[in-house]
Amino acid sequence: SISFNVYQRYDAITAYLEELSKTYSSRVKVTSIGDSYEKRQLHAITITNGDGVANKNVILMDAGIHAREWIAPAAALYVIQQLVENYEQNSHLLANYDWIIVPLINPDGYEYSHTRDRLWRKTRKPVTIFCDGTDGNRNFDFHWGEIATSSHACASTFSGSSAFSEPETQALRDLMHSLSGRAKFYLSLHSFGNYLLYPWGYTSELPENWRDIDDIARAGATAIKTATGTDYTVGSTSNVLYPASGGSLDYALAKAKIPVPMVMELPSAGQQFDPPLSKIEELAFETWIGIKAIAEKIIEKY
Ligand code: 0X9
Ligand code: ZN
């Protein structure tokens, strides 16, 4: 089991995933999709209904590409807990779909934000003798380095020495491509600001299927509003937040051909990247309500 009254560290998250894979071995598999720069395993949990049917459609999620956004991995763990430990109530979400979740895609940065620098955002691979780290969400190879990214190694939005310069973004890229054709929905969890975002980040134009994506995102926002009263803004990244290129969101649609990709910027509870410990569980629950509503739409339409 895992508790939501603290922000869990990498080792505790890993132990929880291992525990689930042992306790629920017919429905859960934990794999490593690669190593971080500091040689931490990047764990993906595959959750199924255990019926043994191969190559089902997939819902793909990640969290924690930005180190300091601690509520994001917490919410991903909550989704995992609901799908695995509360399976009976959620089995409809696993009948024809498998879920693959990477709850902490940037563990080096996450640990560094716990031990050294609370506001660290990037990965941890050195770039120059003075500065470390690349913004993982500027490092994807689609309009890489064009907009709202920095070419300065010391900047918090440094796009990297090249596209996919980081082992963490390479691993996520490879996972996306390995699920090509199967993955229908991709969700990347971030914080903060209550946004449900879809492509594009690189241009204010909209993707050809934006009406479908928008409709599905609004189902999530409405479910959250109904459950807790929390407001989410829904729209394309460049139109409702800011233009930015090289993110995993745009890459998922353009290159991995995942038809419905979204970024969710979770609430701050008035404390930026530090929602109080007493709020973690309710924010994670509320996020789960939104994700469940979105997943139900996806399952119905794809
Ligand atoms: O700037 C970002 O990477 C995200 N916001 S955050 O405050 N969590 O850093 C927004 C990402 C939206 N998606 C794209 N830029 N494609
Ligand atoms: Zn972020």
From TrEMBL:
Gene Ontology molecular function, alphabetical: metallocarboxypeptidase activity; zinc ion binding
One cellular component (GO) term of this entry: extracellular space
Cofactor: Zn(2+)
Keyword match tRNA-binding: no
Keyword annotations: Carboxypeptidase, Disulfide bond, Hydrolase, Metal-binding, Metalloprotease, Protease, Signal, Zinc
Ranges where the Peptidase M14 domain occurs: 6-298
Residues at the active site: E265
Coiled coil: none
GO biological process terms held by the UniProt record: proteolysis
Keyword 4Fe-4S: no
Similarity annotation: Belongs to the peptidase M14 family.
Protein name: Carboxypeptidase B
Annotated organism of origin: Bactrocera dorsalis
Gene transcribed to yield this protein: LOC105230608
